[in-house]
């Protein structure tokens, strides 16, 4: 007789079998966790290098764009700036991987528009540099991988970055304008006759009718001007037409943009107060008060420059009125450069034109510092010191093409009258 056990009795799992399953699960979990941690570490390092590479490209492109002035020398300086940013330990970037490695595979290219479409190397751009005002900087850097090689089969990853910088036309400005509003010069005989324009320096191809390198009035004398005072005008304005324009604009002898002596002085020697946006086609707010003591602020502004003595901005340009042209051009920190709105040539003489309308923005270069206000400035023909308080004015050299913040801009660029700012496009 065969005896059968109890039906339905479960089999017991021994502790040894349960412990083996836990060990296998734990091993697999540790392997998975290590993989996740390794992935996070390597991807995190690549992300850091990506940010460092992008910061380098942004900085290098902006520094390079500052040097572009339409010349082959500007192209060379732009390339040198990229090298400086990449390699100089005292530069703005210290390398990548927290400054332990230098940036690699750097490519610097130039174009005539921010979006290309054709980008060329420095040699090609320098061969015909006139319109090359945009620079693209690229870099590709390898990152040593610690954990990902197990997954991707490679012990290094590549991180790339690119930036494009160049100049942008300013049609509206909020801050940075000097409190002056020089006149646009007439380029035809609509407002003045040929005889009335005789003696003025006029370029019919310039947006404002001005000649690059000539000295023009940025702030006129107050009062009703007379013909016998024309020889004492700034050299570019020595004609009867400009006298008529100044007399027709009742506020032309005052200051522009700001109201009150404190704001006007601060706009000259410090950081201009944040004012109302000034757009081409709008009307310039003027203060027709004389406030002659604020004219002294121009000398304080010039004194802030590291080059207080150069008589002209570019070597081929004429020297400050009464001073000779020298082979040395300006090499300061930019404090002697001002950007101002330019008001319509109509200046109130044309009934169909709005008085004091903004027709654009222009860069001007202030003359050398006057060490002796009682004598030397008279000898230098600093016009605002030649006359009694009610007859003071100021001259400045017209820069033409001008990029704010770019030390080489001004005289060597193409024709035209436009103020630009530097912009990071990509």
SSE blueprint and pairings:
Layout: H1 15-67, H2 72-87, E1 107-111, H3 122-127, E2 134-144, H4 149-152, E3 156-169, E4 172-173, H5 194-197, E5 215-219, H6 240-248, E6 255-256, H7 261-269, E7 278-279, E8 286-287, H8 297-303, E9 337-343, E10 358-366, H9 376-379, E11 394-398, E12 402-403, E13 419-424
Parallel strand pairs: 12-13
Antiparallel strand pairs: 1-2, 2-3, 3-13, 4-7, 5-11, 6-8, 9-10, 10-11
Helix pairs in contact: 1-2
Question: Would you summarize the structure shown here?
Answer:
This protein is 26% helix and 17% strand. The chain has helices spanning 15-67, 72-87, 122-127, 149-152, 194-197, 240-248, 261-269, 297-303, 376-379, and strands at residues 107-111, 134-144, 156-169, 172-173, 215-219, 255-256, 278-279, 286-287, 337-343, 358-366, 394-398, 402-403, 419-424. Helix 1 (15-67) packs antiparallel against helix 2 (72-87).
Fold and architecture overview:
The chain is an alpha+beta fold. The chain folds into two domains: 31-167, no CATH class; 172-424, no CATH class. The chain has nine helices and 13 strands. The chain has helices at 15-67, 72-87, 122-127, 149-152, 194-197, 240-248, 261-269, 297-303, 376-379; strands spanning 107-111, 134-144, 156-169, 172-173, 215-219, 255-256, 278-279, 286-287, 337-343, 358-366, 394-398, 402-403, 419-424. The strands form four sheets. The protein has a five-stranded mixed beta sheet with strand order 1-2-3-13-12. A four-stranded antiparallel beta sheet has the order 5-11-10-9, with no helix packed on it. The longest helix is centred in the N-terminal third of the chain and has 53 residues, at 15-67.
């Amino acid at each position: 007789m065969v005896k059968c056990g109890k039906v339905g009795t479960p089999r017991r799992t021994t502790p040894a079998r349960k412990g083996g399953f836990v060990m296998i699960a734990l091993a697999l979990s540790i392997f998975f966790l290590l993989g996740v941690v390794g992935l996070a570490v390597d991807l995190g390092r690549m992300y850091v290098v990506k940010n460092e590479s992008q910061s380098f490209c942004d900085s290098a492109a902006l520094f390079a764009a500052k040097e572009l002035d339409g010349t082959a020398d500007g192209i060379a300086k732009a390339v040198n700036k990229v090298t400086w940013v990449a390699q100089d330990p005292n530069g703005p970037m210290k390398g990548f991987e927290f400054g332990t490695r230098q940036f690699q595979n750097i490519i610097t290219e130039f174009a005539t528009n921010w979006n290309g479409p054709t980008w060329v190397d420095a040699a090609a751009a320098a061969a015909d540099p006139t319109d090359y005002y945009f620079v693209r900087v690229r870099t590709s850097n390898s990152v040593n991988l610690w954990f990902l090689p197990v997954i991707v089969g490679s012990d290094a990853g590549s991180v790339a970055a690119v930036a494009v910088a160049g100049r942008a036309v300013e049609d509206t400005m909020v801050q940075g304008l000097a409190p002056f509003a020089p006149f646009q010069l007439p380029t035809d005989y609509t407002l003045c006759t040929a005889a009335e324009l005789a003696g003025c320096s006029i370029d019919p191809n310039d947006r404002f009718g001005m000649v690059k390198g000539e000295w023009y009035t940025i702030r006129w004398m107050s009062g009703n001007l007379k013909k016998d005072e024309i020889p004492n005008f700034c050299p570019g304005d020595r004609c009867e037409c400009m006298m008529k324009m100044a007399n027709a604009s009742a506020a032309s002898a005052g200051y522009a943009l700001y109201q009150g002596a404190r704001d006007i002085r601060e706009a000259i020697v410090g950081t201009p107060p944040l004012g109302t946006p000034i757009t081409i086609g709008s009307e310039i707010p003027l203060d027709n008060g004389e406030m002659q003591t604020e004219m002294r602020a121009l000398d304080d502004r010039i004194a802030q420059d590291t080059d207080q003595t150069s008589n002209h901005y570019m070597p081929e340009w004429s020297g400050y009125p009464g001073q000779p042209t020298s082979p040395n051009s300006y090499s300061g920190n930019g404090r002697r450069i001002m950007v101002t709105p330019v008001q319509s040539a109509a200046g109130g003489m044309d009934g169909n034109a709005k008085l004091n309308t903004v027709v654009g923005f222009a860069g001007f270069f202030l003359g050398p510092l006057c060490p002796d206000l009682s004598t030397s400035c008279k000898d230098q023909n600093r016009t605002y010191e030649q006359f009694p308080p009610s007859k003071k004015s100021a001259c400045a050299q017209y820069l033409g093409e001008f990029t704010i913040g770019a030390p080489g801009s001004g005289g060597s660029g193409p024709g035209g009258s436009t103020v630009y700012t530097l912009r990071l496009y990509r």
